[in-house]
Amino acid sequence: MSPARSGTGAGTRPKRPTMVDVAREAGVALRTVSRVVNNDPTVGEKNLAKVQAAIAALNYRPDERARQLRLGVTGTIGAAVRRIAEVNPELAAIEHTARSSGLTLLAASTDFDEAREREILISMCRQRLDGIIVEPIGESHGYLQPELEAGMPVVSMDRPMSGISADCVMSDNASGIGMAFHHLHQHGHRRIAYIGDSERVFSGRERAGAFRASLRAYGEPLDGLVHTGEITAQRVAAALETALHAAQPATALVTGNMETTIAVLRQLGRDQASRIAIVGFDEVPLADLLQPALTVVAQDTARIGRTAVELLRARMAEPDRAVETVVVPLDLIVRGSGELRA
Amino acid sequence: MSPARSGTGAGTRPKRPTMVDVAREAGVALRTVSRVVNNDPTVGEKNLAKVQAAIAALNYRPDERARQLRLGVTGTIGAAVRRIAEVNPELAAIEHTARSSGLTLLAASTDFDEAREREILISMCRQRLDGIIVEPIGESHGYLQPELEAGMPVVSMDRPMSGISADCVMSDNASGIGMAFHHLHQHGHRRIAYIGDSERVFSGRERAGAFRASLRAYGEPLDGLVHTGEITAQRVAAALETALHAAQPATALVTGNMETTIAVLRQLGRDQASRIAIVGFDEVPLADLLQPALTVVAQDTARIGRTAVELLRARMAEPDRAVETVVVPLDLIVRGSGELRA
DNA sequence: GCATCCTAAGATAACGTTATCTCAAGGATA
DNA sequence: TATCCTTGAGATAACGTTATCTTAGGATGC
């Protein structure tokens, strides 16, 4: 039986037993306890039993910090994403893949804030994580250069980092926009508008650019059809006003990301939403319950997350391998909103 | 200028400089570097400059693991929730509150799996986190008793843990169900059915019990109106069949959690959903865009998350304080689906 | 019967920090 | 001029592990 070890004086946290305490209790050397803890087979039956008894009696738990300090590796990778605690299938895939590789995941939210992102990344480096996956927010990541040189594996997800060269996994934005455009065009639409995120953001830039290219490829004029910028109710309202009430009004919309899609749906209201064809970029929660159900171009988020971990592990195993960028294709998911005729 | 320190042989991770290296580079003692790193004011200008230069030249970053080992505290708290990477406002609040308290958050998904939960919690104990918040899944948490006795602060969220006595913050489930029932009753409904999660789960038990109590309080019979169990499409379909096609069919529904609400909406389809009054327990994403918009009893998730961190910090500061359970009230959010008349 | 080899287990030195002493130099005080 | 603080800075011992040696003791080989 273990001695009662609670309440070592008010307000003070009781000390936990260490390997030394276990060794003393068991009457063996420190090294022997270490062997038992690490399942080293070269321990005799007698000592094995004594040590196990002592561990149970003292409720000993090895201190992971000391272990990691000594070992050099932490068995933990970091993920700096925009928001944990929001629907984030990439992060779910990262967590799942990491776990099945025996890696612990430390996830943190950059909250769309460049300074916060930097704090988190530096902190992860100080914690000597085995590697970092980042969904980059900031425009310049040059400050990571020393870390890369010091051998910290870093993989960027969803968009590349500027100022440094690191592995990257991202969706084929241009093809995705092309698919959305083509789908609406096939359903008879000729005036198709695009509303999307700011072009200061990499993905916003890529998608708007691809949309303009689609318009040009199909020989349509660009006038008043492409609206980009911060997503706010006012901006979306203004964009819709311009697009839908022009001399030649748009009959279909492509929305550049989930946030935009939701904002547009809110703005349109129930009546209008059933008259204008919409294809959203990115999956939207409960998209199938909306009226009409929402047609989207969906990123292969599971594959993106999985690939991010795989790229990271590859670099952890082989720090000097060539930098790689993986581009993942998207899928058109047909549900109704994109099939309304012009 | 720093010497090129990349590529120390293929496949091997280059060693990072340590405090000793910085001391040598700067020509001062190890202790002086430590003072500089920790902003100790008792360092002369000359040495301060030399050390700062050396730190920059070598790209030195303190090793957090060693620091924590020496200090005894990690400045990190753990959160074992059902799913990170899903909408989880409690977790968002925890992260926010932790950050503004200067604490790092380590979040992990138990994935509704008891064994996984146990793994995570034990791992967090081994990492000697400063405290743990857990949204309990398993039925017995007795294995945490030694950890509690060893001074590990643990707070449970959303439901209590059985087998041990720990601080807890949770919603006032009974009042919430009462509010939903009362609201529907006020709108003329007399046959009100409940569909909810398994009663093996604490919250499922509490909510179903409260619903039965409401029926009794209003003098209504319970026959065929209360349906609990694992949430699957078949089960929900069967429950709806029983409730809606009885001799005295239900005209209104209370759904016991978000998952159930969504399953019920999917099952009802668009036409039926606009004829049957529904009040959901828990907020649902895009609830305002549904048709009719969804009336819900919403938990004060932000307050729950914040309170969890506060309880944890209180126990970290004062390990021997009395165990506390905080019950948080809910809010009825009226949007349409709950105001359909009988 | 003695050298050799294997096995179990112990001493002890890292890992990279911070904390406790100690000490030297210099200015103030009697 | 001798003594006492004050201030800056260096040795060195933790923190709790794992890894490298070393050693004692019995089994094996010739």
Automatic annotation (TrEMBL), chains A, B:
Residues annotated as signal peptide: none
Record Gene3D superfamilies: 3.40.50.2300, lambda repressor-like DNA-binding domains
Q: Name one GO molecular function term.
A: DNA-binding transcription factor activity
The UniProt entry, under InterPro entries, shows:
HTH_LacI (IPR000843), LacI/GalR-like_sensor (IPR046335), Lambda_DNA-bd_dom_sf (IPR010982), Peripla_BP_I (IPR028082)
UniProt KW keywords: DNA-binding, Transcription, Transcription regulation
Stretches assigned to the HTH lacI-type domain:
17-71
Which chain positions lie within coiled-coil regions? Answer: none
User: Which PROSITE patterns does this entry report, sorted A to Z?
Assistant: HTH_LACI_2 (PS50932)
Q: Which domain of life is it from?
A: Bacteria
Matching entries from SUPFAM superfamilies are given as: lambda repressor-like DNA-binding domains (SSF47413), Periplasmic binding protein-like I (SSF53822)
Q: What is this protein called?
A: LacI family DNA-binding transcriptional regulator
Give the originating organism.
Answer: Actinospica durhamensis
Taxonomic classification: Bacteria, Bacillati, Actinomycetota, Actinomycetes, Catenulisporales
